[in-house]
From TrEMBL:
Keyword Oxidoreductase: yes
The Ketoreductase domain, residue ranges: 7-185
Record's protein name: Glucose 1-dehydrogenase
Record Pfam families: adh_short_C2
InterPro entries: KR_dom, NAD(P)-bd_dom_sf, Sc_DH/Rdtase_CS, SDR_fam
Length: 248
């Protein structure tokens, strides 16, 4: 029996990478999915097409989560298309590395606006429609534990995600809404390829420090997201789940 039959999910930043993997996995378990994208309509349409080919339901909706009105429109689209909202995956995120002396306001604002403010706007809008049994999954990162050099701002945004997760689990818990953070390690995606990370010395160093001995794949993260979205995780809230193959 499908774990998420009858549920509706909104996955932000779902046109590629981890977000696309999560959207497809939620749909495979019976959820109807809003596939959000900021710029890559072709990518989002491809995700929707794959879901439809597998017999699922999905719709692509454009929106920049750092803009409050866009976040509200994404949630409205879920209600308009599918009549309800049960699962929110705050996956939209950007990363940019810089040494301390290279940090400027644009570097700071870009990452905090998407990674932190965007999460707050989307969750605020979704909270008006989520009911008992709903699940919010915030995508963090193992950088909050690994604290790599050159990542002060990015790591700070993901530290904020962890903290917000704990706060909202207490705020929304009385309504039966669960809030957890899913913190991946290095994952092979379009972004890590185009950024020159996969195949680099940095990636080799990460693999060398990973007990399971490889870089992660989107489906490694997606399967955990399905668990957190389902009733199998009904007693989990306010948790940080590190998914990096054991990397520290």
């Amino acid at each position: 029996m499908s774990k998420l039959k009858g549920k509706v999910a909104l996955v932000t930043g779902a046109s590629k990478g981890i977000g696309a993997g999560i959207a497809s996995a939620l749909a495979a378990e019976g959820a109807s999915v809003v596939v959000n994208y900021a710029s890559s309509q072709a990518g989002a349409d491809a995700v929707v097409a794959r879901i439809a080919e597998a017999g699922g339901q999905a719709v692509a909706v454009r929106g920049d989560v750092s803009r409050r009105e866009d976040a509200e429109a994404l949630v409205a689209a879920a209600i308009e298309h599918f009549g309800r909202l049960d699962i929110l995956v705050n996956n939209s995120g950007v990363y940019e590395f810089a040494a301390l002396d290279e940090i400027d306001e644009a570097h700071f604002r870009r990452q905090f606006d998407v990674n932190v403010l965007g999460l707050l706007w989307t969750t605020q809008a979704a909270g008006k429609h989520l009911g008992e049994g709903a699940s919010i999954i915030n995508i963090g990162s193992v950088v909050t534990r690994a604290v790599p050099p050159g990542s002060a701002v990015y790591t700070a945004t993901k530290g904020a995600v962890d903290a917000i997760t704990g706060v909202l689990s207490r705020e929304l818990g009385p309504r039966g809404i669960r809030v957890n953070a899913l913190n991946p390690g290095m994952v092979e995606t379009e972004g890590t390829h185009s950024g020159g990370i996969i195949g680099s010395d940095m990636a080799a160093d990460v693999v060398a420090q990973t007990p399971l001995g490889r870089v992660g794949q989107p489906d490694d993260i997606a399967s955990i997201a399905v668990f957190l979205a389902s009733d199998e995780a009904k007693w989990l809230t306010g948790e940080r789940i590190y998914a990096g193959g054991g990397v520290r």
